[in-house]
Amino acid sequence: MPTAGLLIIGNEILSGKVVDTNSPYLAGELRRLGVDLERILTIPDEIDVIAREVRSMSDQYDHVFTSGGIGPTHDDVTIDSIAQAFGREVVCSESLLKRIEQGQNKPLNEAMRKMALLPEGATMIDAGDLWFPVICVENVYIFPGIPELFRKKFDSIRERFSGVPVQLTRFFVTRYESEIAEDLHALLRQFPELMLGSYPRISEPDFRVMLTLESRDPEYLQRAVDALRSMLPADVIRRVE
User: Fold this and answer.
1) How many Å apart are CA 154 and CA 177, to the nearest integer?
2) Cα(116)–Cα(98) distance, rounded to whole angstroms?
3) In CATH, what number does 3-160 get?
């Protein structure tokens, strides 16, 4: 299956001033598309650090996504960093400059002109009805940190990323993990390829543990679901979704 890495860029995330919501969003979307997100890394607004991690992820994964650091201010250094990662110059894209001029409908200042600077050879991908495109350098897709824009831009190019989607079934059970652990071990011995998760809940009034059973093979998943149903007493299973 295709693999992916995500770089969350920004001192504001590391300092706790802003909460990262792009990571869980992208993780869920890639899961539904069948792309395995294998690493999420949060790093500061430092060119050498960003360049090093971009290059490392680019070599390891089929797709790399970056979030943050592409605005007009002093701490927006993602473009320079990605150019450094691939040994490219930073150049002004005349076509992007025209897009920005049309989008602003007024003379551009130097801060806005900075938005037209790209790593040499970067690809611009139209992002639906957004005037600013998605920028791609090799296998690295550059996204803004603003969650609303991140989501709109990803949604506009999501068809580029596809594998075999993961199928999911959830069990909500009324016993503690320690009481069902042996059943879960037995299930995995019978279905070793099953992706099985067990997540205790403390404050839920009607169940103690949520179990997740996942597989890319719907028939395999259904057999595992049926097997777990037979292992657990009926009154232990609050519901299955």
Assistant:
1) 37
2) 9
3) 3.40.980.10
Assigned token pair, 233: 């007493």
pLDDT tens sequence for the chain (241 residues): 899 999 999 999 999 999 999 999 999 999 999 999 999 999 999 999 999 999 999 999 999 999 999 988 888 999 999 999 999 999 999 988 888 887 777 788 888 888 889 999 999 998 777 778 899 999 999 999 999 999 999 999 999 998 999 999 999 999 999 999 999 999 999 999 999 999 999 999 999 999 999 999 999 999 999 999 999 999 999 999 9
**Which CATH code is given to the segment(s) 167-240?**
3.30.70.100
Q: Regarding beta strands 140-143 and 63-67, do their DSSP bridges make them parallel or antiparallel, or are they unpaired? A: parallel
Evaluate whether 95 touches 122 at the Cβ level (below 8 Å). no
Which residue is associated with the tokens 């909500």? 172
Q: What are the boundaries of each domain within the chain?
A: 3-160, 167-240
Q: 175 vs 120, 181, 185, 187, CA distance in Å?
A: 58, 10, 16, 17
